[in-house]
Amino acid sequence: MALMITDECINCDVCEPECPNGAISQGAETYEINPDLCTECVGHYDEPQCQQVCPVDCITFNPDHKESKEALLQKYKILTSK
User: Fold this and answer.
1) Cα angle 48, 50, 55; round to 5
2) Deepest of 2, 15, 21, 70, by most Cβ within 10 A of its Cβ?
3) Which H or E run includes 55?
4) Within 10 A of 81 (CB to CB), how many other CB atoms are there?
5) What is this structure's pTM?
6) Distance from C-alpha of 21 to C-alpha of 37, rounded to nearest angstrom
7) φ, ψ of residue 17 in degrees (nearest 5)
8) Positions of E strands within 1-82
9) How far apart are CA 47 and CA 44, in angstroms?
10) How many CA atoms lie within 13 A of 33 on its CB side?
11) How far is residue 10 from each of residues 55, 64, 79, 80, measured CA to CA in Å?
């Protein structure tokens, strides 16, 4: 399942540089996560790094983009092979 940033985001800028896939970018009002690039850090780390550094805990699982760990690992392999 890809992650998403909720409206509680305070635009503190700490999550964006932590994403190994470049899935996080500044949106119109808050940061956003591109579900096509988000692997929940599978293949890179044991836990999503953006969630680890977020001071307001506004990064949650995106119910519209459910993926298994195997699917996330496959996405990781595709993203890192480019």
Assistant:
1) 125
2) 15
3) none
4) 6
5) 0.91
6) 6
7) -70, -15
8) 3-5, 24-26, 31-33, 59-61
9) 9
10) 31
11) 9, 23, 29, 30
State how far the alpha carbon of 38 is from the alpha carbons of 1, 24, 45, in Å. 9, 8, 13
Q: Is 7 exposed, middle or buried (0-12, 13-18, 19+ CB in 10 A)?
A: exposed
The encoded tokens of residue 42 equal 């599978």
Relative to beta strand 3-5, strand 59-61 is antiparallel
pLDDT tens sequence across 57-74: 999 999 999 999 999 999
Quick: pLDDT tens for 19-43. 999 999 999 999 999 999 999 999 9
CATH of the domain at 29: 3.30.70.20
Question: Which domain does 8 fall in, by range?
Answer: 3-80
